[in-house]
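Continuing from the previous page...

OK, I double-checked the sequence for Transcription termination factor 1 against my notes and this is the correct one:
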Amino acid sequence: LDLDTARQQLEEFIPHVRNMSDNSIRKMAGRDLMRFKQFKKQGIPVKFGRFSQKENDQIRKNIKEFLSITGIDSAEKLLFTSRYPEDKETIHHLKAEHLFCEKLSEGIPRPWRLIYYRARKMFDPNNYKGRYTKEEIEKLKKYHALHGNDWKKISEMMSRSNLSVAMKYSEIKSAINYGPWSKEETQKLINAVEQVMRKRIEMEDANSLSSSEKSHRDLLIDREKLYQKLPWTEIEAKVGTRYWRQCKQKWTTILTNKMTKGQQLYRGTKGLQAKINLIKRLYEMKVEDANEVNWEELSDTIGDVPRAYVQAKFYKLKVSCVPFWQKKTFSEIIDYLYEEKLPEFEEKL
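Thanks. Re-ran it with the corrected sequence; updated structure tokens here:
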């Protein structure tokens, strides 16, 4: 396919494809377009967002089968070939001969690049090394001073994953405040969110509004956009004194207070009723994975609140009420809450 045709056909499956580079379009046309068309015939849409347990299991299966076919002795060698320079040439040859791209993405309706990143995260032995020691934090500061944001190089020097070192540096790079939010910090957060939203909407409107219309246009935003996929590391930099996760949690609190007009929706009998409604609705959905839950739809079980608020309440519910919840599947957690805790809550109410 020529570039324009490839972009046009991919746009059916990935709306933001027009913002991608020509090189990315070429790669997606080769690795993804035929797969997307096959999934469409089966009535399966292309997915984004968090990977489900079923998708993670499919990645494990695909990797295991590829290792078996090629005789490569570990997933780390397959996915982090640069760590094994003596085997590099052989592994690259085997990956090309046995169609690694096609095998890895088999049965998963997502762009290949996202599947590959997910596999690397799952199989990187450097990804699960626990808390950073004081010595590691000092090393991280030193390496960043030398190499900037070259996270690949720094990750190799520290034997930690790229994502881990990048996120840790984001956390330690400035004096982070862990106390209550001041009025000044809260206002900085609100201003930062407004700035990124304005920037996003201006980009969307660049081709659809004249300059005179833009200058007189108020900032009108669908409510859902206020709490979905905001660039939190960018917002963190604008706030300056808070880690990105703190910014995200505070923003959810601000939205919840605005949307509920400050009412305490999760206290006393209202709180019990909300737990009961939440358990019942989740049970009725009969989904196998948390990623398949439409949290937006569930928000009215507690009140007019952001989806992150509902997710946080569910997390608190399973942690406090379900023994050994880490070892249970999502559906087992819901069944336990429905069978064991729901009667208790209803009696208490």
